[in-house]
# Entry
Amino acid sequence: MGRHFEISDTRLHVVERGADGLPVLVFHGGPSLDHHMFGDYLDPLADEFRLVLVDERSQGRSDPAPSKTWTLERMAADVSELAEAMGFERYATLGHSYGAFVVLQHAVDQPGHAAATIVSSGAPAVRWLAAVEQNLAAFEPVELREQVTQSWAREQHAQTVEECEALLHDQLPFHFADPRDPRIAEYERRAAGVVHSPDVLRHFAVADYGGIEVEGRLGGVTQPVLVLAGRHDRTCIPAANEAIAAGIPGAELVIFEQSGHMTFVEENDAYLAAVRRFLQSVP
# Structure
């Protein structure tokens, strides 16, 4: 059961798991997904930490907000406002994929506001996303390449939740190291329940998915940062995550050698161990 919290101009919906320990604000990918994207894959961390799974602005069960506020900068500001609304004086953040863009933007815009930041399958600038087209051109098998290509073209015209669900289904093979991985079906089952946001998807499909551009500002980040990446990620490639870790003083990089973009699914035990160890080390 979730709750809504008022921030400056809207309400964000959150679901909490675990009662004690350091609060960890968790931000989903997409855009246009919600906290269900993580399924129950992060739940083992709730034995030690307070997981706060957030539906980002205008997504999931969060209240609608004007489309002019659908920016990375505004969503990064939402992080601090939500922490304040929930009464957290000390908290960490974890973002995956687009959520990684959000928490990285937050770390750059408000250094030290979070006690620690975990960037999971992210990128520091739009230029790194150019690799997607190259990786798609080489993606095998051919029938799945065509499936993924057509699904991305349909994003700009998606009107219904059902269309968004179909798009996610068609794209998942591209996000696993093995496009035939039997765990894709398991993931879809465990992550069922996403409240898709077609308006948000259409908006970002023509706007570089948020336009992340913080590469030249990484040196100003002051909190501990953990960067997580999949060796076979075709979307947020390892080199992009290496650039994040190289640019942030003292940042730690962990690359999962058997994973694509869905690291928390493909190597769940190793992923949870890396996150747990990092959070335990936060001063």
